[in-house]
Amino acid sequence: METTDISTLVRDTIKSWDRVLKLSRKPRREEFIAITKVTGLGAIVVGVIGFAIRMIVQVLGRVV
Q1: Is the pTM of this model over 0.70?
Q2: CA–CA–CA angle 21, 2, 14 (5° rounding)
Q3: What is the pLDDT of residue 6?
Q4: What is the DSSP string of 1-63?
Q5: Three-class secondary structure of residue 64 per DSSP
Q6: What average pLDDT score do residues 22-49 get?
Q7: Which positions ≥6 away from 27 have C-beta within 8 Å?
């Protein structure tokens, strides 16, 4: 009984992945560049926030 349930689950999952792959497409150059810029900007923002937090902790560590 469990074998049938697992095989059905696997079959349904593969069908779902197949539908997604049929709908997907390669991004155009403009889309790729925009995604790359946003990702890079996000990485820079996270880095700046982390750097600021580290500096604040170091300054507070010297004061206390």
Answers
A1: no
A2: 5
A3: 86
A4: -HHHHHHHHHHHHHHHHHHHHHH--PPPHHHHHHHHHHHHHHHHHHHHHHHHHHHHHHHHHHH
A5: coil
A6: 96
A7: 35
